[in-house]
Automatic annotation (TrEMBL):
This is Polyhydroxyalkanoic acid synthase. The lineage of its organism: Bacteria, Pseudomonadati, Pseudomonadota, Gammaproteobacteria, Lysobacterales. InterPro entries: PHA_gran_rgn. It comes from the Bacteria. It holds the Pfam family PHA_gran_rgn.
Amino acid sequence: MPSIEIRRPHRLSAAEAHAVIDQVATRMREKFQVQTQWQNDSTLSFDRPGINGKIAIGGDEIQVSAQLGMLFSPLKGMIEQEIRRKLDEHFS
């Protein structure tokens, strides 16, 4: 099962980073029909058939990890590029 691991530094407070991830989660639910759930104040899990993962907020870093099923394996590069673009947009 292919996986995606991306880390991006940030300078936001925990509350600001949480709010940004909430916005991203809303967009993910609308665009990709994923289910999202905060596991605690710093980790958002997401899931849909063929993709599951989490977005973890650290003190100075955002970490995205995802596992792709067979259906999404050929799209790994495109998915990873979109995640990087969104992280750059919100955390650069």
